[in-house]
Amino acid sequence: MFRGNAIIGQSGGPTSVINASLCGVIQGCLELGKSNEESQIDRVLGMQHGIEGFMQEKIIDLGSRPKELIENLKKAPASALGSCRHKMQQEDFAPVLDLLRKNNIRYYFLIGGNDTMDTIHRVEEYCRQQGYELRGIGVPKTVDNDLFATDHTPGFPSAARYVALSVLQAGILARDMKKVDQYVIFQTVGRSAGWLPAAAACAKTSEDSAPHIILVPERPFVREQFLKEVKEAYDKYGWVSIVCGEGVCYPDGSPVSASQTSDKFKNKEFGAMGGTSAAMVLHQMIHQEFGWRGEFQVTESLQMSAADRTTERDVTEAWQCGHRAVELAIEGKSGVMVTMERVSNHPYEITFGTAPLSEVANGEKPMPDDFICPDRLYVTDKCLEYLRPLVGDLPQYARLF
Fold first, then answer.
1. I need a surface site. Which of 119, 244, 260, 297 has the fewest CB within 10 A?
2. pLDDT tens, residue by residue, 167-196
3. Same domain, 340 and 323
4. Which residues are catalytic?
């Protein structure tokens, strides 16, 4: 019999449903880990602030928490266990293994994105090399939706809905106020993938409604083309709605945002530390070119934690991913991340699969070329077909003219 304790951690930026995945892992461990004849889980532990907290022995007993509290995690925003962005160094592995042995941890679950999958992969690989059997399973998470090998990631549908609702409502405001402000710019998170700005297209209900222009990091930002389309939209509608990803760059690779920093994983953090965001730069560019008055909106982490805008489908799938991770570990699997594979759009249906952690850690999933319009700054109908089942139905507001 393979028997031991389980530990769960959360890493990187949160999503509004990351705790639903946590709930799925905890409940899976408590249910499946007690009933299986060949693989059993004795205690369910949690890392406070991810692998960084674990190395400081900040460990809590999740199995002793009330069932109602664990169930209520499904609707809790942010990261209930606390998060970190610690990049594992070579000198970290031996102390981590000592702590795994000390606490008899044989089941190891982390919820996160590419960098988190890299952490699980390296810890699991090191333990294997040292002869310590550890079953490490990754649970996907990111609002950016750029994780390799999965149709989408838990957290993205709710963040996409947040963006679509924000652009829809701000667009109505901008349309009605166009005699005062002639343009509005909404910036989404997402360093190198345009999935979130693309989601704004779900808000469009008519030719003149928001958004008119969508800028994604997969395409270089060309000032002349951008200003040309801004002018064309203004001439048609009397106002312009623009959505941009934070990571849009010029053809030479330099960011549109005026400054940038990097985290410990060398991921770009555009406009951080007092820098100027891409939306601010675009705002200034339009004002200088045309002399118009306008607004920009940079919501940053609100897209990651808006519990009031989660979709039920996203909550359910996040929980299922966490629960499926436990099933895989009980079955003896290790070194993989749970994935979702789309079966159909109409009706929407997915199945669950796996991908090697090594591939996920080193891969990215940008938007496909056929999701991006070749002749204008927007997305295609194929992209909308992919997005709409995830975003869900949006409200229809009354319009007098």
1. 297
2. 999 999 999 999 999 999 999 998 899 999
3. yes
4. 144
